[in-house]
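FW: tagging you since you asked about this chain on Friday. Here's the raw sequence from the shared folder, copied in full. Didn't touch anything.
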Amino acid sequence: MTVKISDGKVEITAGIWGVPSVSQQPSLQLIRWSVRQTERGSRYLVGYNISDHEGRVSTAIQNFDASTARVTTRSGRIYQLVGPPGRDPDAEWVWQNMASPDLKWTDVSDELEVALQEHLRSNKADTE
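HL: got it, structure written out here
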């Protein structure tokens, strides 16, 4: 982000920058996350990276483990989902600037949320 002050006016601009390699950052936590499925069937995480204070869009999802609320992506990075799905303005900005304007996608976050809730219910039933 760049902040420029001129003639009493504040101009804030943002950008998209590279992220650490998977070896440098093998995992991270996302809040206010969502899952976008493209017309080709690929799914991507869009959310707010807690540790780096930034919006993040993942590479394509390869695996989702409802028992741990972890997602592994094509890059090999592991995303820990924290809390319920949601929308984050920074992450939405990154998605809008990375995805092609012609890309057709659907929000399928509810599917993961249902799987997470079912896992919690089954664990609760097992302990009762």
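FW: Residues 24-99 form one domain.
HL: agreed, and The first strand starts at residue 2 and ends at 6.
FW: great, closing this out.
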